[in-house]
Amino acid sequence: MKNTKKDQVVSFTAACLKRLLSQSDGPRRAALAELRRGAGGAPGELPRLWGAWLLGMPEEMQGTSGTPSREEWAVYTAITLFAVHQQGHDPVAEPMNVSSDKEHHHSVGTAFAGLVKSEEDRERVNRRFNVTATSADIVELSHYLRAGVGLFRSQSLPLDYPRLAGDLYDYQFPDSVSRVRLRWGQDYCNTLDRNFPQKDSN
Length: 202
Known about the structure:
Blueprint: H1 5-21, H2 25-38, H3 50-53, H4 70-86, H5 108-114, H6 119-133, H7 138-154, H8 161-171, H9 177-195
Helix pairs in contact: 1-4, 1-8, 2-4, 4-7, 4-8, 5-9, 6-7, 8-9
């Protein structure tokens, strides 16, 4: 089966993270600190970050008109958000990038639901999640995700960053953005249902 552009985005993001985390402690800390500076911004704004997310990127994923491609937006946003998320956590003992499986979807929706610690939190988190999930475009979404990731970090709630990159790629297409929102919404509600099961009124 032929790889799609989304598959390329997911696999390339995973490779970038592996390369980043395979560095020794000092260089890794420095690289993460640099990447944090780019979170919430646009790809290409900080030339010193190019090597962390452009190195080895297939040409077909790169923009050719002086503006970032959809693939570049997805990879760059995911990598810089990860750098924010991992801050203050040991990448070996407490990784903030965790792979999803059939039972556990470490998505934006799951992480937002994890912020709800009591029924009193629900309305506040609902509002923040809804604003994020209904962002008008990738620029606005990266801004809201930057704030959300700060909250996830404080509660040690991980994300699947290669999967997030795939979602960010899909978010940029009118015919797939609704699917991304629905998946996040399903993960959000399913997680809330597990954490706060509805009592049987009978």
